Amino acid sequence: xxAYIIRRLIQSVAxxxxxxxxxxxxxxxxxxxxxxxxxxxxxxxxxxxxxxxLGLNDSIPIxxxxxxxxxxQGDFGISYRMxxxxxxxxxxxxxxxxxLAAVSGLFALTLGIVLGxxxxxxxxxxxxxxxxxxxxxxxxxxTFVIGILLIxxxxxxxxxxxxxxxxxxxxxxxxxxxxxxxxSGRKSLIxxxxxxxxxxxxxxxRLVRAEMLEVLRTDYIKFARARGLSQRAIHFRHAxxxxxxxxxxxxxxxxxxxxAFAIITETVFxxxxxxxxxxxxxxxxxxxxxxxxxxxxxxxxVVINLVVDLLYFVVDPRLRAEKSAAH
Amino acid sequence: MADxxxxxxxxxxxxxxxxxxLRALDQISFDIKRxxxxxxxxxxxxxxxxxxxxxxxxxxxxxxxxxxxxxLDGQRIDNLSTAEMRKIRxxxxxxxxxxxxxxxxxxxxxxxxxxxxxxxxxxxSDKEARKQAIKLLDDxxxxxxxxxxxxxxxxxxxxxxxRVVIALALAGEPELIIADEPTTxxxxxxxxxxxxxxxxxxxxxxxxxxxxxxxMGVIAETCDRVAVMYAGRxxxxxxxxxxxxxxxxxxxxxxxxxxxxxxxQVERLVQIPGSMPRLDAIPEGCAFNPRCNxxxxxxxxxxxxxxxxxxxxxxxxxxxxxxxx
Lengths: 327, 325
Description:
Chain A is mainly alpha-helical.
């Protein structure tokens, strides 16, 4: 178990270093930052000074080592566009994205499991068939179309919900302001959360359904029936628990992509999170911001993956008890 | 008969197919007495397992019982509602499946599965149910039962798991256990042990057994009576000794002749020519007639019913002649 964790940690570090290398190489590919920072009129002496100050004259491996070292301490340099530390800006924006991702993840997971189980148990019911057909919409429509449709319906036509922004915010700590505590904040969250979660919802639902049908065919479910256990015990104890094992992995990965895909949803709803920040950064070729975002997303993925792997140990006794089975 | 536990009469099971109905069981009739062990033999696809599944009411749809009756303790059980049938399952009729590796839920401990089953059928507190569970594991010969009870299925070997399965089948104190090829998936070395466990524990718990198997050796050693099935029909049924020593149906005779014996030197084993017909191509008259070496005209046109011949019942026209004469 411990050896396994250590091995996974080493793998994670390798992944992070690779991503760091990619984000670092962004700097090398996208022109000379000195031009952007000093403008056309600067003297070559000024350029040389700044170059020296930023360490751009050092060899590439040394620059990379410095980049990585700084990144580990959370220092991704100064944003070209805003002239503020990148990490500070990201920390300001991150709560908005995390709140959005958490709410839409929760929405996708609960509804996905409920609908998945329902459609598996009532395989031939008309409602199940309807849900399965409707879920094709979730899988096939691109996020921005769904977002725009929702805005048109609920914000423009019905005028129930706001079409952009986070609504009123409440400051909890220095850099964490939440919209969850005000009504307008919660209202603003609904549409983006649905937009972002719809794809994951249908994915989880279809996965749960397929797994559940698979599990219901197994011998241990037949044997449970033959022992006269109640329908409820068979479906929701014996079958569901086994169904959810593989769902954990997928859901974990989906949570990562919810945060990553938030870019599009945040753009459609002008949601002031890191995704929107990233899009603006691209428009202004704000390299430090872009590379920091890349590293951040990779880090989130790696952490989630690690957590999922460890979670497996907790839920699946076959992995947990590997040792005691050996003797 | 007062000591008849299970009585199956003219049981017909059909599967609706695209082209008409497929008749998988055709007028099966037999009884099981209390505490008796009835062996059911036959080739793959003869309908052995299907008979077991229809008795416990677990036919896979679209298969359904379309004729005949099944009575348990004098009460019809083939027409019960799902909820009523659930009370019979586990409580009156238990079942042991073929593969112990897949019969147990991998993510629950043995204790959880046993206690859940016990409490479904018997009004016992958690503590009493646990005690009962340990006793059951003891009965099926699991060493150090009180320590192993909290283990997960994967921590047991195949033979041990089948013991757990037997304990689970007995948890609701049923009067009949349907054992569907309980040793087929096991190592040869543990097969005999498991059959012993099945036989002895069921005896102790007063449960009758319907033992479905391919293995004539197991039948000979374990069963009181044996039923031979062929192409969804019952060919012969009778006391084990009689069916083995003096088989009446030509199919049974062929079956017995095909088993090698250590006691007698035999030049060649008997082989029945041909193979069992598909269920959608069963010949008219006796299902066995194309392969039978003593076939005559009547066999090709009329279907024989079970006819009493000495201690056996055999579905063969050969004996109708004798009885008529």
